[in-house]
């Protein structure tokens, strides 16, 4: 497997400063600094929540003090690929809710879209401002070699983790200011202002002047509630829950101590089906009655638009390279991981015969759940997945077990390689009527803290690292 730092006898150039620092500092002091970082996380309240497993639901994400580093040229390649992917995903979402050209051309099967739980018929024909459906896209990327990067999955609805990208950097600067004097690292602290500008750029047609922006959260019991409050504070906007908003005459208002205030842009962190009980789940108490009517009328922008989750489906993911060729007449810059669709009889037979070699995923799974890593699974687990695939073949895809790259990590008091992935955050907005994509130089590096593990999700014991992009070459 590819170690991003390289062997001790041939440390890769971007890691040479860090390698010298490790040798000079020693593991004992590094352990003390990691403990100090954990104390800071705990005092500040940087947590996520896991319910249904017993014990205290509030968890700290393990923070590793060794950064993951990209050269400027590596980042430039990733940036171009992410830009292309963010644009084509938005073009695809618009298409399936309008003319469905890609379905008529026979590129994507009709039933994969129209029989998909993530497809919302209520959104057909509705035009979001500037035609943008997904404004914040988290694209999960893995590396297998010096020049080999693969997209693992796309997150177009409400990707989480950006608060950890920002907090990781803040803690690293606080603990090791001397590193940033010598390493020429590009900053990430402009993300909140870029996010606010992105939301501002897609204000609805009926908004005159400066838009009022809010972050809509399902509340403190949500696993990412810390992030919701963090982003609202960083942007200087209100954090609201469903009962704080109401609609009247096709407009959205926020209840305040000074009376009603018009709301123009809602960065929602609530799942589609809970957004509006009049259109979706009638039992929802998290959303706002009449919200979709206001959205359809053009008086409010929803970030991201309902229905954008069709692009998150892991079976739809397999067609993204075809989308690039169909809509843009280009070759994809970033490759997908080779994927077998269990809905196809021949591909399903291959998957079932190779369960001990493959990674199997639920098409709507997330957070490391609904996942089988064949080489690490028991016979009983593989048998259970085989039954599940046979029962619902459309619900699963499979991929080869990639040798994910590793980075040095402080694990159990020693320095050892651990597998990592990366989630950069693309912001999709508008300028002079044209779609724009901006990308903060960095992202959320997730690390599998257990030796040999390929599961990096925080809900499954994974940790996080600061991600550096170096200036210059």
Structural notes for this entry:
The chain has 13 helices and 23 strands. The chain has 473 residues and is of the alpha+beta class. It is globular and about 70 Å long. The model is unreliable at 51-55 (pLDDT under 50).
Q: What is the topological layout?
A:
Layout (H helix, E strand, L loop, with lengths): L15 H10 L1 H18 L3 E2 L8 E2 L3 E8 L1 H25 L4 H4 L5 H5 L21 E10 L2 E8 L6 H14 L1 H7 L7 H11 L11 E4 L8 H11 L2 E3 L4 E4 L2 E4 L6 E3 L1 E4 L22 H7 L3 E3 L16 H9 L6 E2 L3 E2 L3 H9 L4 E5 L8 E3 L5 H13 L4 E5 L5 E6 L2 E10 L1 E7 L2 E6 L4 E4 L15 E7 L4
Parallel strand pairs: 3-23, 5-13, 6-7, 6-11, 11-12
Antiparallel strand pairs: 1-2, 4-5, 4-20, 8-9, 9-10, 14-17, 15-16, 15-17, 18-19, 19-22, 20-21, 22-23
Could you write a compact summary of the structure shown?
The protein is about 30% helix and about 25% strand. With about 475 residues, it is an alpha+beta fold.
How does the overall form come out from the CA principal axes? globular
Mean pLDDT across residues = 92
Oligomer: single chain
Judged by helices, strands and strand pairing, the structural class is alpha+beta
DSSP summary, beta strand count = 23
The value of Rg in angstroms is 22 Å
Number of helices: 13
Q: What composes the largest sheet?
A: 5 strands, mixed
Low-confidence spans = 51-55
